[in-house]
From TrEMBL, chain A:
Keyword Cell cycle carried by entry: no
Species whose genome carries this gene: Salsuginibacillus halophilus
Residue ranges annotated for the PPM-type phosphatase domain, each copy included: 124-335
Domain of life from the UniProt record: Bacteria
GO MF assignments: phosphatase activity
Entries under Pfam families matching the protein: RsbU_N, SpoIIE
Protein name according to UniProt: Sigma-B regulation protein RsbU (Phosphoserine phosphatase)
Keyword Hydrolase: yes
Lineage: Bacteria, Bacillati, Bacillota, Bacilli, Bacillales
PROSITE patterns: PPM_2
Keywords (A to Z) from UniProt: Hydrolase
SMART domains listed in its UniProt record: PP2C_SIG
Cited Gene3D superfamilies: KaiA/RbsU domain (1.10.1240.30), PPM-type phosphatase domain (3.60.40.10)
Automatic annotation (TrEMBL), chain B:
Annotated family: Belongs to the anti-sigma-factor antagonist family.
Lineage: Bacteria, Bacillati, Bacillota, Bacilli, Bacillales
Top-rank taxon, per record: Bacteria
Protein name, as recorded: Anti-sigma factor antagonist
InterPro entries, per database record: Anti-sigma_ant (IPR003658), STAS_dom (IPR002645), STAS_dom_sf (IPR036513)
GO molecular function, one term: anti-sigma factor antagonist activity
Record keywords: Phosphoprotein
Keyword Phosphoprotein: yes
PANTHER family in the cross-refs: ANTI-SIGMA FACTOR ANTAGONIST TM_1081-RELATED-RELATED (PTHR33495), ANTI-SIGMA-B FACTOR ANTAGONIST (PTHR33495:SF9)
Occurrences of domain STAS (ranges): 15-109
Function: Positive regulator of sigma-B activity. Non-phosphorylated RsbV binds to RsbW, preventing its association with sigma-B. When phosphorylated, releases RsbW, which is then free to complex with and inactivate sigma-B.
Organism: Salsuginibacillus halophilus
CDD domains the UniProt entry points to: STAS_anti-anti-sigma_factors
Length: 337, 109
């Protein structure tokens, strides 16, 4: 550190004298370069003033006493800046630390999501989940049980960022610890509701849609807890319908009951589940309509389920100027023809 | 995004008029204005959302917290003047079952 300071002092003397001799652009450029170096070496503003004064005294041994004293005065004035600068530095370090901690947490959170997409016979599954910032408040889950039923869950935890992520880990463990034998969607939600109600703050809640796809019978049973409705595409009618399941969000009422719905899925039909980050996509003109989503899906219907969700995401991302405001999760289950 | 909250004490209730957007950024301000009113014993708090065009899930959370708080103090919370978009949100989430959200959007007086 001392060496570095001496070297800087030496350099400052050189460039200052050069400038005083030539007074040209080149000299000012050197000053800018020096300024960067001073920052790199964490030299405080008052040290720069004192550097200037000592160089001045060397080059002009007979500068007026008043001018000399004025630099002492300036030095005092700069001390405040120096302290602010130090604080800024330590905040920057602290921020870097926090960011790397959040990175670790975000990586850990990724491991909560299923690592692969199930590939049951006759069913084409695609899913994409993208957080608006590092941590996500969206959650999805697959269970493929021995009765050839594929359980799918999509959930949105209120809010974003770290609190939502913490809550999501609770949901994951709650779902993992549900009884082995398969629960009907409505019972599963009632069970989860009890866990959430007892474990979250009064202003937190979780919305969820849970469905069970019977791969042999091609029926889809589902129930919802205040979750954004999805869509059902009927190949025969070539139409989209809203797939809604009325029910109160998880975590509000201690004893909540959920209604169960069922659909018979014909070849070529598909089910779209989503989080409100998909439908609450906001452009400069305002919120997009739900029809806009079905239009985008329709444009890519000839592709595989995974390609469909990828394309819809990219187009919605483009519409929003590549700036997601909310976590985005989109899932498609299509019965193959 | 901006939000404004105006509080008036009426004979038998506290009225809170909110304007703007209620999202993760503005929600804390609403909570500060709303929750203390629900902590008065047996108080009725009415929140008028006539000039609110957007609420996100954090905003809903504030109302749920306020409702629970009101019930703890034997009071109640009522929300009026919801526009179609906001109404839909309360209905999808099933919160219309637990919070009194009035009838239709009230006509301007």
């Amino acid at each position: 550190m001392g060496d570095a300071y001496l070297r800087l002092q030496e350099q400052y003397r050189k460039i200052l004298n050069q400038y005083l001799e030539n007074k040209n652009e080149q000299g000012l450029y050197h000053a800018q370069q020096f300024s960067k170096k001073v920052l790199e070496n964490q030299i405080s503003p008052e040290e720069v003033v004192s550097l200037h004064l000592s160089t001045l005294e060397e080059s002009f041994p007979d500068i007026p006493k008043g001018a000399q004293d004025s630099f002492e005065f300036l030095l005092e004035v700069m001390i405040g800046y120096g302290l602010a600068y130090q604080e800024h530095q330590s905040l920057k370090d602290r921020q870097r630390e926090l960011e790397s901690e959040i990175d670790v947490a975000a990586n850990m959170q990724q491991t909560f999501l299923p690592s692969g997409i199930p590939e049951p016979e006759d069913l084409d599954v695609g899913v994409l989940s993208v957080p608006a910032s590092k941590m996500s408040g969206d959650y999805y889950h697959f269970v493929h049980d021995e009765n050839d039923c594929l359980g799918v869950a999509i959930a949105d935890i209120i809010g974003k960022g770290v609190p939502a992520a913490l809550c999501m880990s609770m949901i994951k463990y709650a779902m993992d610890s549900l009884p082995e034998q398969r629960l009907q969607p409505a019972d599963l939600l009632a069970n989860l509701n009890r866990v959430v109600e007892q474990n979250v703050a009064s202003n937190m809640f979780i919305t969820m849609m849970y469905g069970s796809y019977d791969v042999r019978a091609h029926t889809f049973q589902y129930a919802g807890a205040g979750h954004e409705p999805g869509f059902y595409y009927s190949a025969e009618a070539d139409e989209f319908e809203e797939l809604s399941a009325k029910g109160i969000v998880l975590g509000i009422k201690r004893h909540a009951e959920f209604r169960e719905y069922q659909r018979v899925v014909a070849p070529g039909d598909f089910i779209v589940l989503l989080s409100d980050g998909v439908t609450e996509c906001r452009t400069e003109q305002g919120f997009i309509e739900r029809e806009e989503i079905t239009r985008l899906i329709r444009n890519h219907m000839h592709l595989s389920a995974q390609e469909m969700v990828n394309h819809v995401f990219h187009e919605l991302e483009k519409l929003q100027g590549f700036q997601l405001r909310d976590d985005f999760t989109l899932m498609i289950l299509r019965r193959e023809v | 995004m901006n939000m404004e909250v105006a509080h008036t004490r009426e004979e038998d209730k506290d009225l809170l008029k909110v304007a703007g957007e209620i999202d993760a950024y503005t929600a804390p301000e609403l909570r500060e204005a709303l929750v203390p009113l629900t902590e008065k014993e047996g108080n009725l708090v009415v929140v008028d959302l006539e000039n609110v065009d957007y609420i996100d899930s954090t905003g809903l959370g504030i109302f749920i917290g306020a409702l629970k708080s009101a019930h703890n103090y034997n009071g109640d919370l009522k929300i009026i003047g919801l526009n179609e978009r906001v109404h839909r949100l309360f209905s999808i989430t099933g919160l219309d079952e637990v919070i009194d959200i009035g009838e239709e959007r009230e006509e301007a007086k």
